[in-house]
Records
---
Amino acid sequence: MKNLRQYWPGEDIIQLAVRLGLLALLIYWTFVLTRPFVPIVAWSIVLAVALNPVFVVLARLLGGRPKLAAAILTLINLGIVIGPAAWLGLSAIEGVKQFSDDLSAGNLVVPSPPDAVNRWPVIGPQLFEYWNQASSNIRAVLREVAPHLKPLAAILLGLASNASVGTLKFLLSVALAGFLFPYGSQLAAAGRAFLHRIVPDQTEHFLDLAGATIRAVSQGVIGIAIVQALLAGIGFKLAGVPGAGLLAFAVMILTIIQIGAAIVLLPVIVWIWVDKDFTTATLLTLFLVIVGLLDNILKPLVMGRGLTTPTIVIFIGVIGGTLAHGIVGLFIGPIILSLAWELTVAWIRAGRTEASSPAPLSDVDLNQRPVRQGSLTGPHAK
């Protein structure tokens, strides 16, 4: 403080403190006012970046009319959100409410195996015995832990009640992304200028990495998971599986966090073979197997570069995003966290490369280098 007073009088220090306080108040107030819109803006930017290649091709096919291409692409996105995505969401909400009600009432049960399983050739009797034992043991465990799981029911019910707000945010994000499509080059220039202030030597590399990461996660992880969940939901509905929407939502979550849909699909296939005739069971099984393998087929085609983000980062992004921003955060969380991870890793690697590369010697360094006795390059060389 004594050193500061040597350079600034007391009144200048007070003015500086007042200015910094007002600036902090302005930043905090701006954050409070814009916080509800952060998920909407973030998701709209993700959509604009992820669908930019489609927008460019569509604008070119329409004779260079970007506004018309943006309008068509926005209507298609709104149709997807309002149509199949809304159907999947409403079915999942209904399943979550039913599950939370059963959890609160302590009515969770695991069904016993049908008698038809015991008549299956080769594996039938053994599978029937294992299923019956698992059903009895799990039912006993659920009776013990049901009172402790009641708080979980309140959390699930809260998530289901916030789904309508999440749907509205989705619609606003899609509409805002439609306005951002024609201004992609200006947004890229703004991002380039911002990055130039932070990492002037790595601006282009970081900008390309950010765009590639957003497209890889949004198309190769989120997009494929949504498609898989929608197709699985259709198969579950056709099979008449109880809680089809909730199971389809579980398929989407498991696919996003890179575990895979087999955990849900295999029990459903077993249930189909128990409940349906041979022809119906065969067709539904073939359809669900194709759905389960869809991510292995589409990911190499959609993702131009391999995603190096660890699964734990995506998992934390899913959980943290959902807790912070509801249903919209389920999709934004893994994208933002993957972007932060990739940029941080690239920044660390760039720093290591600069530290390990030898500094070039200038002409002055060469001229000032000491000369050993007997050297043929020195001034006393003979």
Note: DSSP finds 18 helices and no strands in the chain.
---
Amino acid sequence: MRRTHETQAESFLPLTSVVFEILVTLARGDHHGYSILAEVRERTGELVRAGSLYRAIGRLLEDGLVDELDERPDPEIDDERRRYYRLTEFGRRVAGAEAARLETQVRHARAAKLLVKRRRITSPRLG
């Protein structure tokens, strides 16, 4: 069931890490499924399974966070089987709400001294 723009972004929270990473990828621009998968894997270092990624994209489409594009790149550089996706404005709001939620959690973890600030290592100056 596609939710309308009146739906509160917070009603989707918390997002799974795979869903959040898909939204972050699409916030940077339109992508086809495999390029989303590749970028998520590269950014997270995790082996995200293609099946779980495509199921998540299907749910994002149903919920109105992502749209499938009708426009196609030049056929000479594209594979006709690819499906291209774009983040909707509502999807951007949901991703922003999740980012804010995560930022708050990190701030609380730092306050509880669960995270240590990384020290910058500087090399000695040669003189």
Note: DSSP finds four helices and three strands in the chain.
---
Amino acid sequence: MNQLTQLLGRIQAGDTEARDALFAAAYAELHRLARARLRDGGRDTVMDTTCLVHESYLRFLHAGELRAEDRRAFFAYASQVMRSVIVNSVRERIAQKRGGDWRPLTLSTSLAANVADREDTVLKVHEVLEDLEKADPRLAQVAQMRYLGGYSEQEIAETLDITERTVQRDWEKAG
């Protein structure tokens, strides 16, 4: 755990090799986070957990600076990046489907309707989180970590440095 904070410090100091070391050290936890993200909020994308972790890593690289002081901030940021990757993936799939009256042929028409409904749900959740973030950023963080990240109340409390009871109240308000 302390290793991640040290690597983040090296990145802040300009050590370019520390970024790869950080992702290598955090890979298992990022994979767990991606699995939770896909299970709870983005299961209807064509992405698997490894793809989501790798796409997120590429976003980190293209973003330039990594602004995270410690382990908690890093995983909170990683959670947001994963959400962004999932939302963009869904948007791209929806955009590809817009082809006039052309409809893909499936053996069951109910399957195609269910996938479209679930993709819309991912986008609706994203929009609700954006609105919630404008109103109350901490509520949005709690909702994102709980619903999309699969974090327990205790993990959220530790990450955000608040009590579990505060997490419970925030979750009730956000819901």
Note: Residues 105-113 have pLDDT under 50 and may be disordered.
---
Amino acid sequence: MIVARREIVTARVLLVLLMAATIVPFLSLLVTALHPSGTYPPGLDWPSDPQWHNFTDAFKAAHMGELLKSSVLIVAGVVPVSLLIATMAGFAIGHLRMKGSRFVFVVFLVGLTLPFEGIVTPLYYQVRDLGFLNTRWAIILPLIGLFMPFSVFWMRAHFLKMPEDLSDAARVDGASTWQLFWRIHVPLAMPAISSLAILLFLWTWNQFLLAIVLVDDPSKRTMAGALGAFQGQWGTDIPLLCAGSLLILTPTLILFLIFQRRFVAALLQGSLKG
């Protein structure tokens, strides 16, 4: 009993420390953002007169209305297409086990080892030759390809554990492969699909490197990509810069807080299957 209590106390202490390590940076941003514009706030001192208007000033200065629209368009172009391709590929590789599926899976695994930084230069010239440079397609199309290795790996892990008897019973009833996929396996895969959608949304929304390199017009970048231009213009105004950073982070935090239960459930489901 004493050993068990010690383990519980240790686990709770570790959770508190992890929570503090997560919350303190956001608290620091908030406290800094509320100081008068142009000042250099010391530490985590709460201002005597919080400047809440810094958030509206940052929103107007960075033209975040246009950035929000651009980010939504980019997310709408990346996430649904990536989910569709990854789900079909994961079903073919993990459940149908088509001929050559192992080789295709190894190719996707190799893709997981490619960092964005290592391919951004050839990607720039390829996008330029296609005529997509300085457009939203310069972000959408590369992200779909770059997200495929992990997305296919994620969906394959789900379909790999689906029982064969389920598919055999559906085929006996006359279901085609397409009907088997859409009417039976896709509904059962919704936890994995929804959690993957959350990850793709977060990665697309926070995409910085490709948005900076491939798009010169800040109004066509993601909100995170436009932060680079905002920092260059207002880098000396620390409170305004922190306010802009919090505005960019807010949508992702809200999305995760809303769907965190479904995301955790999908992770636990995968751990139980594995």
Note: The radius of gyration is 23 Å.
